[in-house]
Design a protein that fits this description.
The chain is of the alpha+beta class. About 30% of the residues lie in helices and about 20% in strands.
Length: about 325
């Protein structure tokens, strides 16, 4: 866990047990379909694991309740609401709230800087960064502008109401765009597709794709989206924004709409809430994240481990600065 920041998922022992991990066992040929509902034990033999879809783990020592077994960094996360975005860094998850004492010497160093171009349809900031994440913000919102421009394109697409014959269609479109800005699923889809489209320049000036994680992401379970799903309209609007911002690749066999649809399906099927249990009930959910590593573990109908997802800042769980 050293030198690791951002959204982190932890797999921990649910009760005193000798039946879950001490070491992870993964076979490359079984990673094609994840989140299998099959039991990873051989029927009739409770001690012999079976190679089925996903990853199973076995124990080599006794684990007491609450023992952290595995940790996994996220492929991407977004913050839940305008209130959360005003107080948490969009890159490391560090919590920055204005000090109770205005004369506090930490006030100047504790406040976030917000991207001036990334605003929701009500003008609230979408992306804020702390002093430790200036380089990350430069990479993702200065050198690579996909996320910025997609959000700007969506906001600019909101049309003032009028009395024309297509007023109902305009109202529906405006409503769907506002739903995108309020949906952590849609916003996480934008972030993941933006990161996929980005390139990092090396010291020699050569552009290198950052999307090596995408291969694992494409193996995740894709939740089906029926035509009458409320996300279907969101998919169409997101695809149109991607068409406007990212040039179509001649080497790609898929349209932006196909890629957006599959990404939304995977975010729906495999993402997890980021929570801070120390906050009051109703305010504990901070955002949503995708953890490809943990999404490959088999489901169990009799679980002896649980998954929790939070921010890890400066190698510690939870916000670095709190109100308390």
């Amino acid at each position: 866990l050293q030198e690791q920041n951002g959204a982190i998922a932890f797999l921990s022992a649910r009760s005193n047990t000798s039946n879950i991990v001490g070491k992870a066992e993964k076979e490359e040929h079984i990673m094609g379909s994840s989140n299998s509902n099959s039991n990873s034990n051989n029927p009739g033999n409770d001690d012999e694991p079976v190679s089925s879809a996903g990853i199973f783990v076995t124990v080599d020592r006794h684990l007491s309740e609450g023992t952290m077994v595995l940790s996994c960094g996220s492929e991407g996360f977004v913050l839940e609401s305008p209130e959360v975005r005003r107080h948490y860094c969009s890159y490391c998850g560090c919590c920055y709230r204005p000090p109770t004492n205005p004369s506090s010497p930490s006030s100047s160093s504790s406040l976030l800087v917000f991207c001036p171009d990334c605003r929701d349809c009500h003008g609230n900031p979408m992306v804020g960064y702390c002093s430790d994440c200036t380089d990350d913000h430069t990479l993702h919102h200065v050198e690579n502008l996909v996320e910025c421009r997609v959000l700007q394109c969506l906001r600019a697409s909101i049309t003032p109401p009028n009395n024309s014959d297509d007023s109902d269609e305009i109202a529906i479109t405006n409503h769907c765009i506002r739903e995108i800005f309020g949906s952590s699923v849609a916003l996480l889809t934008i972030k993941l597709l933006s990161r996929k489209s980005e390139a990092r320049k090396t010291d020699s000036g050569r552009a290198v794709s950052e999307s090596s994680w995408w291969d694992d992401f494409e193996l995740l379970y894709e939740h089906p989206l029926p035509p009458d799903s409320p996300y279907s309209a969101i998919v169409v609007l997101l695809a149109a924004a991607m068409d406007a911002v990212v040039p179509a690749s001649a080497s790609s066999a898929y349209t932006h709409e196909q890629v957006v649809r599959s990404t939304v399906g995977r975010v729906l099927g495999c993402s997890h809430a980021i929570v801070d249990p120390s906050l009051p009930l109703g305010k504990q959910t901070l955002g949503r994240a995708v953890y490809a590593g943990h999404s490959f573990f088999n489901h169990s109908c009799a679980p002896n481990a649980y998954l929790s997802s939070t921010f890890l800042v400066n190698n510690k769980q939870g916000p670095a600065i709190s109100d308390d």
